[in-house]
Design a protein that fits this description.
22 strands; Elongation Factor Tu (Ef-tu), domain 3; efflux transmembrane transporter activity; conserved putative lor/sdh protein from methanococcus maripaludis s2 fold; alpha+beta
């Protein structure tokens, strides 16, 4: 009886322990099965250099051209007489007037030749006076019948010979005077001395190069266009181009002449563009690259870098209500110089789109925030090589910004400043 009671007690105790363990295990299982708290959706923060705003702007398109700027009027000033250079009065970069003396060559021998030529003129003039006096006397004697007709004709012939000798002497005198004047090297027109090839003391021969004078007020650009695009190039067609060393500043000219012969080796036609340079800002020799602006339109445009053409239709990522939205667009005229493309449908004026590497970093439908520009930075709308400018900004080195907070936004690229990283 006692042994049965003990078993009953232990049995109840074991059941309680088991029930407790089950209860504890059940509670932990319930705790493990509880749903995890919902994570907050991340927001991608982009800088001003990663976006662009669709704007109405003037677009142009046409055959691309490139080449070096040349002075439209240039002259190689050479020595016209031989001798020692006595003095140099012009240096590189010096502005000169037409007829201004650039150098002087030794002229002692030339002066002596001029003196001899002057003496010969005086002698010939005196001989002519004597011959004319003899002719007058012979005329009177011939009328009186004192001399024969042959003597009279000889007197007339002597006059003609004296006149010829005087003319020859005067011609030699003029040549000597001209040679003496050539000892003074002068500027052929108003311009700037670009090169000087001689120095004082040099002994030069005729035709030796001394200076190069150019007129920088009008430059010329020689370039070639494919013959297949020749119909887009006409005389007086405007040309737009950029010049090395002047950033994104645009310059303009007009097609002045078109070569009538196609180069058989390249299949291209040579064109000549006149470029006014009255403010003397451009320099001959600089490399220029642009296009013949044969077509133009004014429409909503975005940088070419914003277009995603990997799919069947071109598309952009537009930021709307804080999220990236993929939008198919229909494109029109491309402006390769300004790096802009016309958007005929899909976007409206003022829409903000992603650029470059930011398009691959931001997923469609993801939350996006564009940081405000710094107080000293230029606004997005300003023209230039940045958002909404004439040239698409280069893709940032690190792509789109990570969703971690960052300091003030990077300054957008400006016309004369490279994008900061």
């Amino acid at each position: 009886m006692r042994r049965a009671r003990i078993r009953q007690v232990f049995g109840g105790t074991s059941a309680g322990i088991l029930m407790g363990l089950c209860a504890l295990s059940g509670c932990r299982k319930g705790e493990d099965a509880a749903p995890a708290p919902r994570q907050e959706e991340l927001e991608m923060t982009l800088g001003q250099e990663n976006v662009a705003r669709a704007e109405v702007r003037q677009l142009r398109s046409g055959p691309g051209i490139s080449g070096n700027l040349q002075a439209r009027t240039a002259a190689a000033v050479r020595a016209e007489v031989g001798g020692t250079i006595l003095d140099i009065k012009a240096q590189q970069g010096q502005v000169v007037k037409k007829g201004e003396e650039l150098a002087r060559i030794e002229d002692v021998t030339l002066k002596d030749q001029l003196i001899a030529a002057s003496a010969a003129v005086r002698t010939a003039r005196s001989a002519l006076q004597v011959a004319e006096a003899e002719q007058e006397r012979a005329t009177r004697l011939s009328k009186a019948g004192v001399i024969t007709q042959r003597d009279f004709e000889r007197a007339e012939l002597s006059v003609e010979q004296a006149k010829g000798q005087l003319a020859e002497a005067r011609s030699r005198h003029a040549l000597a005077q001209e040679q003496l004047n050539r000892a003074r090297v002068v500027a052929p027109f108003a311009g700037v001395v670009s090169e000087r090839q001689a120095s004082a003391g040099d002994v030069v021969q005729p035709s030796a190069p001394l200076f190069t004078v150019v007129d920088p007020r009008t430059l010329r650009l020689e370039a070639s266009v494919p013959a297949a695009q020749l119909e887009q190039v006409k005389v007086d067609t405007p040309v737009e181009f950029h010049v090395t060393g002047y950033g994104d500043r645009a310059f303009r000219g007009t097609v002045e002449r078109i070569n009538p012969v196609v180069d058989p080796a390249t299949g291209q036609v040579r064109i000549y563009v006149a470029i006014p340079n009255t403010d003397l800002q451009l320099l001959a020799g600089l490399f220029a690259e642009g296009r013949v602006a044969s077509k133009g339109t004014q429409a909503v445009a975005i940088p070419i870098d914003a277009i995603d053409d990997t799919g069947t239709e071109p598309a952009v990522l537009r930021i709307q209500e804080g999220r990236a939205q993929r939008v198919n667009v229909r494109l029109g005229l491309r402006d390769e110089v300004a790096r802009q493309v016309e958007v005929r449908s899909g976007l409206e004026d003022g829409d903000v789109v992603l650029l470059g590497a930011a398009r691959s970093e931001v997923a469609e439908g993801g939350r996006v925030k564009v940081s405000s520009p710094r107080p000293d930075s230029k606004p997005v709308e300003e023209a230039g090589p940045g958002v909404g400018g004439s040239e698409a900004p280069p893709p940032p080195s690190s792509g789109a910004r990570q969703p971690t907070p960052r300091p003030a936004s990077t300054q957008p690229p400006a016309e004369d400043a490279a994008p900061s990283h």
